[in-house]
Write a structure and sequence with these properties.
Helix content is 18%, strand content 47%. It is α+β, with helices and mostly antiparallel strands. Strand 10 (174-186) and strand 11 form a beta hairpin. The longest helix is centred in the last third of the chain and has 16 residues, at 348-363.
Length: 405
């Protein structure tokens, strides 16, 4: 009847995209004549589905966030449609992102499009995601489970990744992440990053850092040659929060080459950075007096073990660094003369500082890999444990596992 229709093997093509559809639809007559709800099920298969064949994407600079409207209307979903679909797409193209072997469930109802338990391969790894597109706002909220994605491929393919993690351009290696994002969309499927809210956890493999201006400047200041070359970075675990145009990163420990470091801070979606690094770095008496003019150095160029706080501001590509000495240890490297004491290279202020230094070294430097010594970052307002609990509550994949037990 006209009110119920079964469709089998409906094939089609538009530009680069093709599809094969089977469906059972109910309420067609009422939908056409009386604004009743159209319901049913659809099986959708495609070898290639390029979203740009159907909707126009906005074009904006990779280095800036576009906030003005661009051509390209977002799809509007009628309230009176209630459709459940299963999709299997060999190659799904969304802008610069190519998803391979994408499979999952789609529900269309009440002006919303929900994607549930979607899986795909992309950027060298595997993605799982669930979420909702609300055409009335228009806006979105999605949960992503990203497994072993490549930094280089992610930076090249995903504009959102470039904006949220600009350090990715300097990293070689892989990462995994649980990430929840919600925000508004602008015409052309462009995210309004001023409305973007989110939280997440990111874990990395052993990495290589290459060409990052921050480390090149630190290497130049402290004569650490390895910082100006491809630098080995230990695996990391990072908790972060996204709000009001900033990505705030909880303090985390890394080993960069031979140096333990504690790192924390935030960066904005327009690539402004506010970070701090604490590390024990080699320094000569002469350099120490430059950083701390109150000290009088008689040791000249003898190296010392010094706990340094580095404040990083400006743009990630053109950072501005400020250095603060937190402590100077009497322990020196093999190049130092035996028996040299801190009192021999400093005045009374240095001797006064020495007591505080010993406590700082004991409490901070010796345990830098275990105990944070950075001041708390007030703008975060959430601990890593808080973010972890919230992610567990939001994770639809863990919920599914619990329900299946």
């Amino acid at each position: 009847s006209l009110d119920e229709v079964t469709i089998k093997g409906l094939s089609g093509q538009m530009k680069n995209s093709n599809w094969d559809i089977s469906a059972e639809l109910k309420g067609i007559k009422g939908y056409l004549l009386s604004n009743d709800t159209l319901s049913g099920t659809i099986n959708f298969a495609s070898n290639v589905l390029d979203i740009s064949d159907f909707f126009q994407f906005s074009e904006s600079s990779d280095s800036s966030v576009r906030l003005e409207e661009q051509p390209g209307n977002l799809p509007q979903i009628p309230d009176d449609i209630n459709i459940a679909a299963q999709a299997a797409i060999t190659q799904l193209i969304f802008g610069d992102i190519v998803l391979k072997d994408a499979k999952g469930d789609i529900k269309v109802h009440g002006g919303n499009l929900q994607m549930e338990a979607f899986t795909a391969k992309s950027m060298g790894g595997r993605l799982l995601f669930s979420g909702n597109y609300n055409s009335k706002i228009p806006g979105f909220d999605f949960f992503y489970d990203l497994q072993n994605l490549d930094f280089g491929e992610s930076f090249q393919s995903a504009k959102t990744f470039r904006i949220l993690m600009p350090i990715g351009q300097y990293l070689q290696g892989s990462y995994s992440s649980n990430l929840f994002l919600q925000g508004k969309l602008l015409p052309g499927f462009s995210i309004d990053f001023n409305t973007l809210e989110g939280k997440g956890y990111l874990e990395t493999s052993s990495l290589t850092l290459k060409g990052m201006p921050v480390f090149e400047k630190i290497g130049e200041q402290f004569k650490v040659k390895s910082f100006q070359e491809p630098l080995a970075i230990s695996p990391t675990k990072n908790w972060f929060d996204i709000s009001e145009g900033f990505v705030s990163v909880q303090d985390f420990n890394i080993k960069a080459g031979d140096f333990n470091m504690l790192v924390g801070g935030k960066h904005s979606v327009d690539q402004r950075v506010e970070y701090r690094i604490v590390s024990a770095l080699p320094i000569t008496g002469g350099q120490l007096t430059v950083l701390m003019p109150s000290l009088k150095s008689a040791a000249g160029q003898l190296p010392l073990e010094t706990l340094i706080e580095i404040d990083i501001k400006g743009k990630i590509g053109k950072p501005e660094l400020a250095f603060n000495v937190l402590g100077v240890s009497e322990q020196r490297n093999a190049a130092a003369e035996p028996g040299l004491k801190l009192k021999e290279i400093a005045d009374r202020k240095a001797d006064s500082l020495k007591t505080n230094i010993q406590r700082t070294i004991k409490e901070g430097l010796d345990s830098i890999a275990q105990k944070p010594v950075l001041p708390s970052i007030d703008s975060l307002g959430k601990t890593a444990e808080d973010i972890k609990k919230q992610l567990e509550q939001l994770n639809p994949f863990k919920k599914k596992k619990k329900n299946n037990k």
